[in-house]
């Protein structure tokens, strides 16, 4: 009898996706064992990315002030979340953060700007920043900036922008439950404009927003159809004051199964552990390095995440390697040996100390 996990791995190595029903079973069927599934999803990850882990650093360059109503986002116009709103940071601040990201070993620096999408004037301003960063630092560059069309995409492509992020977030059927000010079709149109103009689209999803299993599967197949090369996987961070605050469906195991399913459907894509990695995958976070080959450090749009140091420790402990860049001082993070979670913590428990 054929080993079903081996068969999944072999199909992924041939870039054949499982069927949607098989994908639903990977998420829901308790008879699907987690560790063999992780091992199956590792096969295409190893084929295309070896044991390297790409590290991304995100700069939230403009916060709030958004006219859209994406219910999962603390920056949306109706959110009551306690966040500070600020207009776009100055160029020097954005450039300094790019340098820090490169020196910390990030392979990619992401500039996130709240709002429906850039004006033409804003696209030119971003293009100037893109040119400066590309001239100064050996780092790939991504902008997350909302909806855009051909005119904006061309301006950014001419400046040398590598990628533009615009997540599908959920299925078309579920889209109006999370946002009413723009449509799923608007998001697809943005991804197609990016592709037409030679910018790599980065697009992923958020799991845990009240969707059904087949909605998650549907997004995975839509990203495959669109040949999206970069897929961030977010797990909804419940932010008090937002309209969408979680459906209680997310366990570490379900999150890990979702990452494995995404890898098997999109064997060649860069799959990135994004928002909610720390809080939802928890102790299984390290296992997600087997299907995923990329992650964020130091936090997300409005929430904190694990720091560079502890994330690199996890990567090294699991036998993986930070991809880094020429400015990255690799040996700094390879000091090995025993380590407690907190450097300031004494080794001995207080009650046994003399
Ligand atoms: S996800 Fe983007 S467009 Fe939607 S509310 Fe947040 S900042 Fe605005």
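^ Assign residues to that structure.
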């Amino acid at each position: 009898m054929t080993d079903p996990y081996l068969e999944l791995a072999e199909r992924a190595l041939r870039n054949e996706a499982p069927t949607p029903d098989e994908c639903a079973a990977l998420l829901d069927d308790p008879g699907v064992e987690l560790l063999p599934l992780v091992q199956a999803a590792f096969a295409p990850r190893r084929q295309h990315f070896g044991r390297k882990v790409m590290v991304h650093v995100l700069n939230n360059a403009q916060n709030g002030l958004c006219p859209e109503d994406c219910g999962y986002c603390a920056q949306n116009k109706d959110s009551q979340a306690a966040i500070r709103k600020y207009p776009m940071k100055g160029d020097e601040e954005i450039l300094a953060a790019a340098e820090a990201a490169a020196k910390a070993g990030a392979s990619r620096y992401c500039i996130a700007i709240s709002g429906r999408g850039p004006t033409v004037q804003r696209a030119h301003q971003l293009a100037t920043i893109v040119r400066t960063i590309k001239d100064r630092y050996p780092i790939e560059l991504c902008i997350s900036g909302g909806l855009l069309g051909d005119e904006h995409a061309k301006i950014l492509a001419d400046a040398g922008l590598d990628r533009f992020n615009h997540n599908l977030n959920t299925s078309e059927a579920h889209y109006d439950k999370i946002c009413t000010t723009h449509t799923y079709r608007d998001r697809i149109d943005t991804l197609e404009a990016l592709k037409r103009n030679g910018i790599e689209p980065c697009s992923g999803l958020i799991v845990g927003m009240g969707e059904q299993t087949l909605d998650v599967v549907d997004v995975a197949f839509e990203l495959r159809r669109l040949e999206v090369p970069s897929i961030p996987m977010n797990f909804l961070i419940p932010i008090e004051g937002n309209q969408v605050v979680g459906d209680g469906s997310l366990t570490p195991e379900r999150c890990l199964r979702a990452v494995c399913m995404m890898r098997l459907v999109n064997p060649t894509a860069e799959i990135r552990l994004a928002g909610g990695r720390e809080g939802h995958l928890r102790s299984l976070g390290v296992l997600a390095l087997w299907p995923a080959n990329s992650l964020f450090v130091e936090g997300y749009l409005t929430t904190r995440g694990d720091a560079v140091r502890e994330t690199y420790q996890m990567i090294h402990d699991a036998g993986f390697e930070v991809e880094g860049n020429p400015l990255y001082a690799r040996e700094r993070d390879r000091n090995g040996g025993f380590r407690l979670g907190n450097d300031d913590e004494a080794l001995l428990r207080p009650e046994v100390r003399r």
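The pocket of iron/sulfur cluster is lined by residues 66, 68, 70, 73, 75-76, 114-116, 146 (CB under 6 Å).
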